Amino acid sequence: MRFVDIEKFFPIIAKISEDESIPKYASQLVYLTSANFNSEIESSIMYSIIQKHPKRADMYWLLHVDVTDEPFTMEYKVEQLIDQKLIRVDFRLGFRVEQRINVLFRKVVEELVKNGEIDITSKYTSLKEHKIAGDFRFVVIEKVLSSANGLKFIERLTMIYYAILKIFSVPEEKGFGLDLSFVAVEKVPLIVDLPTDFHLKRVI
Prior knowledge:
The protein has 204 residues and is α/β, with parallel strands linked by helices. The chain has one domain (3-190). Helix content is 28%, strand content 31%. The strands form two sheets. A six-stranded mixed sheet has the order 5-6-4-2-7-8. The protein has a two-stranded antiparallel ribbon with strand order 1-3. The longest helix has 16 residues, at 153-168. The chain is globular, with a radius of gyration of 20 Å. The N and C termini lie far apart (40 Å).
């Protein structure tokens, strides 16, 4: 997993959100992040927003979960990285607390709206005049081994074994208790070792 400095992406995220030439993907776009620091983000998330298919949204959310040694801790912290555009929510949950992120996130959003910190009213004209909330969509990123990798035999076997284990493991969206009707699973290439030690000759 590779992390990048999130701050350098602030300008382009803000511009994508306002770029009407890009079809709107969702009013509220939510990603789960394993980055422990708010200054970092997985490169795969930035790839998803910017490169794979530019995703315009009114607001972007980053959700991070820390499991504490206390059994029943239920705390959260909110930080607006880009005002009204990019928000990070850090949950601190006890090891006995069920990670129903969908329910917990809804509670956080309700409190932020109640406090006047955010406005989730849809920006579509026909919905805005009736003060209807915009839609939410969770994007779960699944890494898929790229065929461009130049792995050794033992490394290929390791990755095959990893793929078999994933078949029997609990999908991330189920593990976090997300409502599957609002979840989009997106595959991004996992490039471990891209071969570059070759010469390609141009003949024309």
